Amino acid sequence: MNKVVKEVSKSLSIAEFKLSRTEKEKRTVSVLLEETIDELQRKSLVLEQANINLIQAINTVKATQEQLIHKEKLASLGELMAGIAHEIQNPLNFVNNFSEVSAELVTEIEEELQKPDRDVELETELLTDLRKNLYKINHHGGRASAIVRGMLDHSRTSTSERRLINLNALTDEYLRLAYHGLRAKDKNVNCELVTSFDTHLGEIELMPQEIGRVLLNLFNNAFYAVQEKQKTAPVDYQPTVTVSTQLLSQAVEIRVKDNGMGIPATIKDKIFQPFFTTKPTGEGTGLGLSLSYDIITKGHGGTMEVRTESGLFTEFIITLPTSPLPA
């Protein structure tokens, strides 16, 4: 009997020990769990704050990008305005000159009418000259009006609105505007412009304001490249920018080539990346080619490539589909 009691007592002691140990383990686990929860909560707060900081950083980057894009557009607009001012000034100069000459002709006619022995042949000649001058005034005034109408049309057109456009005329117009904008800043600039426009091209559907921005950027880059090369080139170097269009089977091709500095092979693959620029600090945002690439590829479903050889030439090749993109 005593032996049984001892065995039962021993079993109870073991059970109590195990129970006590289990309770201690539970308390230990509970403490560890609480500590883990606290640590997770602390890390969660840290991650939450890091996420807030990241969102703020992203918003700051986006705002900076928007400011740089706006700056790039304003820079292009400044170049465009300088070219437009020159284009308008030319016909206005003709209008002013022919107006002055016409006023002198009118005075001569009035004097001839006052003479007792009028020279009819002279009067007829003066009237003929006056009529020619008036035709010329009308012609050049119409040219100035056309430039203004074209620019107003471009400014009012939504960037997402497609229209049938004479691409040859648009390309030629922006080439002249870019060159005159360059000359407005430096009268000593001299660059040969070579154009070859496919007469079978006709009109194609595109966003004229956006394509104009691309062309203006490519022309300005080409002029910059030949100017930079001219600083160190031999005296017989002739800066040349060549622009051509060609109608393909299902697309139209635009080529802009310069015989400037070219692009080193090590950076050729980076030129369409946002904020990458080969120009010195302060002379470029690095967004011109990036925006142009997006306009051509995403906005028009086309392609934009570059051929270049360092020290010799750079040629940008744009292809635009002749059929409208699916809605």
From TrEMBL:
UniProt feature coiled coil, ranges: 33-67
PANTHER family referenced in this protein's UniProt entry, alphabetically: SENSOR HISTIDINE KINASE, TWO-COMPONENT SENSOR PPRA
InterPro entries per record: HATPase_C_sf (IPR036890), HATPase_dom (IPR003594), His_kinase_dom (IPR005467), HisK_dim/P_dom (IPR003661), HisK_dim/P_sf (IPR036097), Sig_transdc_His_kin-like_C (IPR004358)
Pfam family membership, one: HATPase_c
Matching Gene3D superfamilies: 1.10.287.130, Histidine kinase-like ATPase, C-terminal domain
Taxonomic placement: Bacteria, Pseudomonadati, Bacteroidota, Cytophagia, Cytophagales
Protein name (Swiss-Prot/TrEMBL): histidine kinase
Assigned EC number: 2.7.13.3
Domain Histidine kinase: from-to ranges: 83-324
Reactions catalysed: ATP + protein L-histidine = ADP + protein N-phospho-L-histidine
Protein's UniProt keywords contain Transmembrane helix: no
